Amino acid sequence: MTISHAAVDLRHAPLADVRAVDLRAPDRDLWADETALWDRLTVAWAGLDDAAWHLSGAAPSDAGGADWSLAEHVGHIADWQELAEVYTARAIETGEWPSDSDYDDGDFDTYNERRREPWASLPRDSILTRLDAARPRLLELAHRLTAETIRAPGPWGWVYNTLHGHYLDHLAVIGPWTDELRVRQIDGDPFMADPRPVDRAGFAKQEAAIAADFDRLVRPVPPEHWTAPDLTPGWDLADHVTHLADWAEEGVRAVEVFARQGYWLADPDEGIDAWNARMVARSRGAGTAAVLDRYDRARARLLDAVSHLSTDDLRSPDGWSWVYDCLHGHARKHLAMVGPWCVEIARPEAAR
Q1: In a domain, 313, yes or no
Q2: Core-most of 127, 303, 315, 348, by most CB within 10 Å?
């Protein structure tokens, strides 16, 4: 059964309900539907780091190859949008649309398998740059067609199936897979055997990547939403950033004690959960600017303190635990928690 009414929220309804909607129906707004499903797609991966993107296991290959990663699924969407730019422009000029036989004689599984590179190896940000560039170019071309033309039997599969139809197909895989990755990242899974870099350049690269994610996801959230209740149980966004600052300051203390006395601090006597709750409660009420300023200053102080550690001390079990778990290792956990909310809340109210 399919339904064509607008009651289903394409951004948030269960995927089975969305798939039951007849998105080809004449009363549907093609472009509003595309935007809604694009929003849903981009929320799915918000806050997941580059290592998560390249972990295989999202879904088996339909052509007998290795399991696909999130990078390959999103790259595949970008790939087909780039392909669609070419054939849509040609169809606008000639009225001729492709046929299945143009693509490995209709064996799309084999065709897609052959095109897993470069996507499998590209960094997450490079994939998203390509996708973010391809989508508006394809939409501009598609907008030159009337809705009636797009809904016709020939064009429909070639336009819809590279825009929101394609998003919908891949959300069936990307949604559950990113849910699993998110839980693992929150739990501290680095998605690699040993996250410790071999040198300071590698450490700086790791830390800068997560800092850039923080800047992209957290800083654009309007100040009035920083104290919206229960972003996660009992905590708002200000609490999360305050908590990151608390541990960065504690990390500075730990490094300084090690530098002076040669040993690493133990966890708080009262227990980590009690310490976290007490420290966050103590700082509530500070404005957004003050919270961010404290976080920035604490992070800068910790980076400076770490710069005086030897590489061996940085890579030691205790040293790495304090540094990583007070800097980017900690931030990436919280970005996995708050990332989807940050992306949604930064959008216009009508698109949330």
Answers
A1: yes
A2: 127
Q: What backbone phi and psi angles, to 5 degrees, belong to 56?
A: -75, 160
pLDDT for the residue 99:
95
Q: Which residues contact 3 (CB under 8 A, 6 or more apart)?
A: 20, 21, 22
- Rounded to whole angstroms, the Cα distance separating 83 from 141 reads 13
Output the pLDDT for position 4.
46
Provide the greatest CA pair distance for the chain: 77
Report d(CA 12, CA 15) in Å as an integer: 8
Predicted confidence at residue 350, as pLDDT, reads 61
Whole-Å CA distances, 330 to 4, 55, 74, 128, 335: 45, 20, 26, 24, 9
Strand 56-59 and strand 68-69: the pairing is: antiparallel
Q: Which two tokens stand for residue 158?
A: 């070639």
Closest CA to 337 of 236, 248, 267, 251: 236
- Averaged pLDDT in 10-residue chunks for the chain of 352 residues: 68 97 97 98 98 95 89 98 98 96 94 97 99 99 98 96 98 98 98 95 97 98 95 97 99 98 96 97 95 99 98 97 98 99 87 68
The β-bridge partners of 232 are 235
Domains of the chain: total: 2
Give the CATH number of the domain where residue 171 resides.
1.20.120.450
In a domain, 8, yes or no: no
